[in-house]
Amino acid sequence: MAVTAGATVSTKTDEDWMREALALARHAERQGEVPVGALVVQDGQIIGRGWNQPIGTQDATAHAEIRALRDACRRLGNYRLPGATLYSTLEPCAMCAGAIVHARIACTIYAADDFRAGAVHSLFAVFDEPRLTHRVAYRGGVLAADSAELLRRFFRARRGA
Question: If you average pLDDT over residues 1-13, what whole number do you get?
């Protein structure tokens, strides 16, 4: 693999990055939010972090992926993030998948499938839509059991079961 001048080579794996996203999900849980975390990585560096905050911010768009994208765009001073990878502990919904496409994210790695709202493959296939002008590579299932257990435990506690 060729490395461009100024690029940082990272020895971290997708599983390492996902563990960091899971830490953000646990942070969301401590705040009473659905435990989803996301981060944006470019050139081996985290450039954006986010966790679910719709309840606390009273903002329906404050999903972990959106928060991570906003953080990354602000840090880089650009609304486009070509070459970046987004890691999320849950399959992105339609809103988040659309934002990922518009931000020109190169690849999305997610943990657990979301059979109720997932827009990568579970309910919709936004990244595979041939009419869109940008293609996002993707892979699911990275530390899926860890993410799914975190979500199960959270919802079980909310139901009081």
Answer: 58
